């Protein structure tokens, strides 16, 4: 830490004890902008394939991704999975269903036509709603010389009963809607429509709390369609906030949490690898605001502040990657509640035996193109991106999300004045 002049300490002391405003940094420097104007995407042809031997494959369901089916031999069918457009980050989502006139075992070969490597361990479902991991003895992924799985093989047992195969435990947007409806049963939760996606799906925020909007929180997830594990952590986090505990009640009387659980509904519905239907990575559009999903949320936040005269003290964006990582802002820069994020992460992580969180503070001091940067540099909200591992056990995800919620409320409830 740099040495600070005594007058600066005095300034900090006065600022914190008055709880009116917090120390600000100066000179953000130039913003690195990424092009986010619409790109052309290729749409899947929705269809059912006759794969021979009485076997059928279909992508005729919301959230599906399946671009081609080809029988290789009696016991092997190749499926081709392609991205919506390129360049694109390696996040090859797949989801489809299959059935067979006669019960039979055969292998499915996942092929990405050189555009990606297999990433998601297959999940299976017999009702399209509840998924569980395929038996590991029925799955293998040969690696190339650099250790990357160019293809993968899954043995399935097909019958007249439909079998769903997907990259994660949920497909499509319906489960999000169901969860939102559950939250809306609470009388302190209301829905705010902020606009529509390019395909006309509602862009909705839930307001959770009964406070006066002087201190607010913003939580978002699923900018990137396949990132369900981030969504699951966000769910556990939010489910703490809505509880009937004295802690949660107190929290809701002091703070309103604004939640956009599904930032990219079109991308989810289309089974995209990463982008919205404008062919854009939404998490690169928080400076340009060329896409409706980012533009409407930014408008909502700015307007909310103007209208209420309040401020956002905390913001979180939940994602998924190979392992659990917290991306935070430069710890030398202060927002509306200096030190909040490291404290919340450390306190919640400590409760999980043996868990040492991987925290990566941004070393830069300039605004970037991501949500995390927007929340911090524009709104001075203490913000973090929580990337949850693709394969982190679901009970651990739940624990991490819940503890984050509990510790955040504990710290914010202790805050002396507004
Ligand atoms: Zn992401």
Automatic annotation (TrEMBL):
Highest taxon listed in the record's lineage: Bacteria
Keywords: Carboxypeptidase, Hydrolase, Protease
GO-annotated molecular function: metallocarboxypeptidase activity; zinc ion binding
Cofactor: Zn(2+)
The Peptidase M14 domain, residue ranges: 156-415
Entry annotation: catalytic residues: 387 (proton donor/acceptor)
GO biological process: proteolysis
Family listed: Belongs to the peptidase M14 family.
Protein name: Zinc carboxypeptidase
Organism: Algoriphagus boseongensis
